[in-house]
Amino acid sequence: MLALLGLLPCGVVVFSFAALLANVDMRTGRGYALGAVSSLHLAFTIIIAGTVAILAQAQPHPISHQNGSVTIWLVFYFVPSVYAILVAVIGATIVAWIAHHWLWILGFVVAAAVPFLVAALPYSLWDPHTDYIVRQVGFLGVLVLPEAAVLAYSITRLAHPVAPARQLAPHN
Question: How far apart (Å, rounded) are the C-alpha atoms in residues 82 and 152?
Answer without folding.
Answer: 19
